[in-house]
């Protein structure tokens, strides 16, 4: 389990976040290319509750080529025994009010997606 946080400068972001996986590597798939933080041993910080960091190149975001189906993120909650440490490590880097951190004994995620048919919770 993990989640991804976008940045416009992955080098700077990784330098500011000691807990982030390193190094950033270049990845391609078809005509897409991006930089993403990848731990050398494959382990994810905080059991995957800490985000993988991604940087897309300048220009239109790949999501702009997808059909708009009327869905949008309302909230994304990261539940983890060390939620306070994760929140503190990302302070000033990830300031999206939709992202929330809560303490829980078992790491997990909870998202609320607004759809044309009402809000839906994913766990």
TrEMBL record:
Residue span(s) of domain Glyoxalase-like: 1-92
Domain of life per record: Bacteria
Name of the molecule in the record: Glyoxalase-like protein
Species per Swiss-Prot/TrEMBL record: Bradyrhizobium stylosanthis
């Amino acid at each position: 389990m993990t989640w991804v946080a976008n940045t416009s400068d992955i080098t700077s972001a990784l330098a500011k976040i000691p807990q982030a996986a390193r190094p950033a590597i270049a990845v391609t798939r078809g005509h897409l290319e991006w930089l993403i933080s990848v731990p050398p041993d494959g382990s994810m910080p905080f059991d995957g509750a800490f985000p993988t960091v991604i940087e897309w190149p300048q220009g239109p975001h790949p999501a702009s080529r997808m059909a708009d189906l009327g869905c949008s993120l309302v909230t994304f909650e990261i539940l983890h025994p060390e939620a306070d440490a994760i929140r503190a490590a990302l302070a000033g880097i990830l300031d999206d009010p939709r992202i929330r951190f809560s303490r829980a004994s078992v790491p997990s995620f909870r998202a609320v997606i607004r759809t044309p048919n009402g809000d839906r919770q994913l766990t």
